[in-house]
Amino acid sequence: MTTEHHFTRRDFFKLAGAGAALSAVSKVALAALPDIVSAEKANTQAPLHPATGRPYQPVVTLNGWSLPWRMKNGVKEFHLVAEPVVREIAPGMLAHLWGYNGQSPGPTIEVVEGDRVRIFVTNRLPEITSVHWHGQRLPNGMDGVSGLTQPAIPPGKTFVYEFEAKRAGTFMYHPHADEMTQLAMGLMGSWVTHPKNPKLMAVDRDFIFLLNAYDIEPGSYKPRVNTMLNFNLWTWNSRVFPGIDPLVVRKNDKVRIRIGNLTMTNHPIHLHGHEFQVAGTDGGWVQPSARWPEVTTDIGVGQMRAIEFVASELGDWAIHCHKSHHTMNAMGHQVPTLLVVKQDDLVDKMTNLVPDYMPMGETGMAEMTDMANMMDMPLPENTLPMMMGKGQYGDISMGGMFSTLKVRDGLAKNDYRDPGPYQHPAGTVAYEFNGKLPVANSQPAPKTTSAVEVQVRRPNGHDGHSH
User: Fold this and answer.
1) Cβ atoms of residues 279 and 306 within 8 Å
2) Closest CA relative to residue 112, chosen from 65, 80, 76, 161
3) Distance (Å, whole) CA 360 – CA 377
4) What do you get for the CA distance between the two ends of the chain, in Å?
5) Please, which residues have CB within 8 angstroms of residue 420's CB and are 6 or more apart in sequence?
6) How far, in Å, CA of 111 to CA of 191, rounded?
7) Where exactly are the structural domains of the chain?
8) Is the CB of residue 262 less than 8 Å from the CB of residue 234?
9) Which of 147, 148, 239, 446 is the most buried (most CB within 10 A)?
10) Pairwise CA distance, residues 201 & 308, whole Å
């Protein structure tokens, strides 16, 4: 991740504006539109500091980016393109989704309270769409409910939404046209309206991401859009661990994390090592006197929460959904429970029929992490092991909705690069008891290797790396 943002072509590419889906737009109309800017990669981009318009403190979109704009006669203009995209869920797995401007979720839109905003939405999907600006106060005809408040946007057409960003807060955008299909395909994005006064409720680091879910069978690339509850991939911004980037902060930074939920169930998000306050919802900011302390906050369907805390404790702290099956990847819902069931005879019989058969579940599912790192473990095409992360002390038996809050001393203000594993002071790591306690303050630190890469076993046997 870069520490500054200049929107070079390494990070983004501009689409030429041709193509079948845009052919229905006249050349005169196309020339009047803002440039289409599209993200190439699924890594976290550095914050977009405003070059025009009113100042604000930008957010950092986890495994995402913010959409540039142009100023025209005092109006902030954006261009969103709804289109098929290929999203890397984690190294070793790609998904054919629908998104905006090259990625799913689409780019975060950042504006300032009181801005006049104009969004051009071009539809490059094979069916109609619309955009609902979830949580915004705006004219009814700009609310984005196809058939009710506007005609649907046909394929190949560009519609214009224009309204004033009336209140500061955290919002999202998504379709209200064939909504179940389009959300299941990943069509969504985040929106932040900053307060007029950039010093109001200021924090040092401000993160945002959406909770979403997919049902992608091993060996396939496209989600099953009629799944209602039994999803097998629980994601943050369409990524699963270890593909989810860490949230990197300086010690004693005041940190805000904004989280929106566009899945079909609630998610209790839990942060280790710190307590936080629930500071905002998509309905507005909670007055300081009314905020309440938590270490877990439940985020319901269609809700957003903003949590705030001071990152006072050094270390690599887990942050994850506390529904345990949401911290696994590529789950099979028909797998029987085989705890303490001896499978020796079964293995011999099965390997005669299926040479690559491997038993699992006899001692629990943590063994899946070991299997994922074995050179000869066969996997179906385009899928992921249930648990596949590695840390400095071995396997991290997690996947899905899981990442780390990395608190460090001495980081530069805009440095979001992964600092590597935390180097624990001597005497501060849990250890095996051998019958004696060490002399106080003299416990040696366990021997570890230096920085360890997270390694993901690709189905074809090659390694992918995510630092």
Assistant:
1) yes
2) 76
3) 12
4) 11
5) 451, 467
6) 8
7) 1-331+403-426
8) no
9) 239
10) 10
Torsion angle of C-alpha atoms 332, 338, 344, 345, degrees rounded to 10: -90
Structure tokens at 169: 């807060």
Length of the chain: 467
1-331+403-426 is a CATH 3.40.710.10 domain: no
Max Cα-Cα span within the chain: 81
In contact, 113 and 139? CB cutoff 8 Å: no
**pLDDT 10s digit of each residue in the chain, 467 long?**
333 333 443 344 444 333 444 445 566 666 789 999 999 899 999 999 999 999 999 999 999 999 999 999 999 999 999 999 999 999 999 999 999 999 999 999 999 999 999 999 999 999 999 999 999 999 999 999 999 999 999 999 999 999 999 999 999 999 999 999 999 999 999 999 999 999 999 999 999 999 999 999 988 999 999 999 889 999 999 999 999 999 999 999 999 999 999 999 999 999 999 999 999 998 999 999 999 999 999 999 999 999 999 999 999 999 999 999 999 887 655 555 555 566 666 666 656 665 555 555 555 555 555 544 544 456 788 888 775 778 999 888 888 999 999 999 999 999 999 999 999 999 999 999 999 998 765 555 555 444 434 444 444 444 444 43
